[in-house]
Amino acid sequence: xxxxxxxxxxTKGGSTTPAxxxxxxxxxxxxxxxxxxxxxxxxxxxxxxxFCGKTIGLYPLNRKICERLSGDQFYCPFCLxxxxxxxxxxxxLILSFRSLVGYYYYEKYxxxxxxxxxxxxxxxxxxxxxxxxxxxxxxxxxxxxxxWFIDFSKVGKGRKKVKVAEVLKTIxxxxxxxxxxxxxxxxxxxxxxLKYEEAxxxxxxxxxxPEDRKHLIPTLANCGxxxxxxxxxxxxxxxxxxxxxx
Length: 246
Ligand SMILES: [Zn+2]
Description:
By secondary structure, the chain is of the alpha+beta class. The chain is built from eight helices and seven strands; from the N terminus they run E-E-E-E-H-H-E-H-H-E-E-H-H-H-H. The chain has helices at 60-70, 77-81, 98-110, 119-134, 164-176, 180-183, 189-206, 233-236; strands spanning 2-12, 15-24, 45-48, 55-58, 92-96, 139-142, 147-151.
């Protein structure tokens, strides 16, 4: 890599000649991620995103960039990149399927003596559901939080808009990746799907989300499963890949 930059100027015979420094991959200085520009150890500070609610640890350099772009309230890099820090974010519905992945992880791997799935399978579920959802350009996905963001400003009947049925089709296509009927004894895929459908139609028509449930993350409660006392189904709503232990 070679890049040329001007950093100083010198005066020769009344005319100014810029001094030129050549930056090459040999003389460029790289900083470890946990050091600041003075070479001192930098502290990671955790922030909560004002839109998606994700808690993220940032080193000073990244922090400054995010703070600068965020304004008064902090937004994570994912939300800034997708412009979810603007007033238009009222058209974005945040939802997730992570309670389902959390259920598989706790019920069939972490809190059982007879493991029915392996971590590699859980990873496969996460990857395949991401691939299925990203087929639809209205859907954005943050793999760190497992949150999906659907842009409803482009859903409707007008020009350059797609019908809400296309959103629901993608939801169904994501859900089929989890093989619920095979992996969840007495599991009722249709009941689980209806939790998404009902909330999505309400958001589409009224931009409505309950005050205490900003994100749409249904659990398998009342979908035919037996509840395990070792963990609460409510906790599966908070599952993220970071919860997976070795
Ligand atoms: Zn965010």
